[in-house]
Sequence to fold (816 residues):
Amino acid sequence: MATLKLPSIAEAEKNPAVKAVYDDIRATRKSDFINNIWRGLAGSPVLLQRIWDQIKAVMATPSAIDPLTKEMIYIAVSTANGCSYCVHSHTAAARAKGMTDEQHTELMAIISLAGQTNHLVTAMQIPLDPEFEVKS
Amino acid sequence: MATLKLPSIAEAEKNPAVKAVYDDIRATRKSDFINNIWRGLAGSPVLLQRIWDQIKAVMATPSAIDPLTKEMIYIAVSTANGCSYCVHSHTAAARAKGMTDEQHTELMAIISLAGQTNHLVTAMQIPLDPEFEVKS
Amino acid sequence: MATLKLPSIAEAEKNPAVKAVYDDIRATRKSDFINNIWRGLAGSPVLLQRIWDQIKAVMATPSAIDPLTKEMIYIAVSTANGCSYCVHSHTAAARAKGMTDEQHTELMAIISLAGQTNHLVTAMQIPLDPEFEVKS
Amino acid sequence: MATLKLPSIAEAEKNPAVKAVYDDIRATRKSDFINNIWRGLAGSPVLLQRIWDQIKAVMATPSAIDPLTKEMIYIAVSTANGCSYCVHSHTAAARAKGMTDEQHTELMAIISLAGQTNHLVTAMQIPLDPEFEVKS
Amino acid sequence: MATLKLPSIAEAEKNPAVKAVYDDIRATRKSDFINNIWRGLAGSPVLLQRIWDQIKAVMATPSAIDPLTKEMIYIAVSTANGCSYCVHSHTAAARAKGMTDEQHTELMAIISLAGQTNHLVTAMQIPLDPEFEVKS
Amino acid sequence: MATLKLPSIAEAEKNPAVKAVYDDIRATRKSDFINNIWRGLAGSPVLLQRIWDQIKAVMATPSAIDPLTKEMIYIAVSTANGCSYCVHSHTAAARAKGMTDEQHTELMAIISLAGQTNHLVTAMQIPLDPEFEVKS
Fold:
């Protein structure tokens, strides 16, 4: 159902540049599972590398925001953008990183409340309070 | 610039039902500041109450997700929905709850990376991996 | 602040094809006011005519949905799409067609509730009930 | 395919708080049918109650906007937000409330025309006419 | 799965007004294939005609932007709007007009990079540089 | 009005890592002008470098899609995402790369028509034609 052919993993890995990225995904995630987005990018090793490098740097490297929070933020953006695949894959990732059912429920409450007030503010065209402005 | 008249706080508080909500906002937030969205809702005490009750329950009550993370999720949704006022007000709220410049930068990196892969997945129409399906 | 020059009405009407559309807008709306979107389209009489013909046919011709309801639907779409100009112009049009403050408040309640459940359904990825399917 | 387990209605109703809401849905709608979104919310009686209370207050209580118009507004928002489930469920609801094929066709014409002019206005970045400003 | 019945082509063409549009689609595209959107519009010959007239004028008439570029722009909008059907149909159309795999890969790189910077700019609420303003 | 302080160019360039990127922007674009998005990213040289590297690779390197077409695709995505700053900056870039008024008008016609049919298809929930499926 994709708009381009998704090669099998074996077929994709015949290209050494693709195999190198897939191997790094496996090593970083400590899992043999390569999900479909990476098959979709197999035809373009340059774009594959660029996307993976960013995912690795932003999502898989210890930093000032903890790994589970990062996944919940990712789910939030993906929901608002209506990306079904992304919502599914990052919800699975959040669960793998320890998201409890209670946290998932709260996440849905926050996301949907934001959806509500976003629409409300836009419908009313509320002007910015000077208190929120950041002076440069 | 709003699509309806925004009364001044003093004018709005002539309605006791509005004043009661504003007083609860002040007490909950430990601040005298009432921002513009609440002025926009002054004409409808029922809707005002409904929105505030939810904000209070979801965002201002201790729970399984910490207050700063909640604000970062709110910013994520508001950004994807293009709600300028919401991005501003919740960034201010996140800062008030301790968000550092480093965390803000990371938040922008995560949100924008999600925007990138959301578009990529949608352009390629990547099919769902069976591994991500939740069995009912 | 537009991405193209907006000629004054007088300047735009030097083109007879533009003047003919503007005159039809005035006659249909029984008003001399030509708002900015029509100035933006003055450089392309073909596109100007195409857009106006549709607005006239869909929004200004008696049909199975009453004029005020049409404007409220237009506001709903424009809000969800985050089009500030469109929210403003169609709210003004709805008021001109009789929208009361009470109806405006309800409209905001409906739009924002839809925003909330839209996000909730997408975050949960709720599957379609067979009962909602239309058989072909 | 949901991101969380959807319990059967019978399983969900073992929780009295869930059963109470479901019973109110049935009584309000005069129908035994409980659609999937309510199964998705069964794990969180608080969120379930909050969402249903709003749907009941906004959509199922006589007010200044008639029930069919409310559903058409809901469809409009859901379409612009790309929520497939929501478009389906509210189109079914609109039909149940009397929407004719002619009205459905008109609704699609309005929604899609709004989509067109929303994009046009955003591409041109049309500035707001002072005539549309509401003075506070 | 549509929200309205999709008649078969044969059934739809019993209406001469529908048949006339379908025949023009076939002649313009030099193909017998009528895709599903046109079946969906069969119940409203007026809307069917209006949509086809625009597709023909904008997409199928020689002009200042070449046919393949037009399709790539269409894919870009459809991706950002999350319209799965539209992404599929216009990707097929782009391929039929000569889009190579390399161009498709680049298109995905551009669309997803735009998605990234769009989110980044909105999260930061970058103010417009005076240099980008068009003077009227 | 940004959500973070935008340093002046001079202030930003005190950081050698930032200056190196700004110098590369100037050299690549053969212009001294550094627009506001790059000031917004000055606080995070890593993210600044990551975004610029991609813009340079995707938008400023000769490839299978010509430079003007790339900018028009960028405008299309930015319009659908409602990013006002992005629409302005990439329209300016497109003009600098030779976009004529006629092409700009056509671009608006294509973008807005896509917006129309995207909404129409989503409102009707048109199922995918098997002919559009890509076999893997």
Q: What stands out?
A: The radius of gyration of chain C is 19 Å. The mean pLDDT of chain C is 97. The longest helix of chain C spans residues 101-124. Chain C touches chain B at residues 82, 87-88, 91, 101, 104-105, 108-109, 112, 119 (CB under 8 Å).
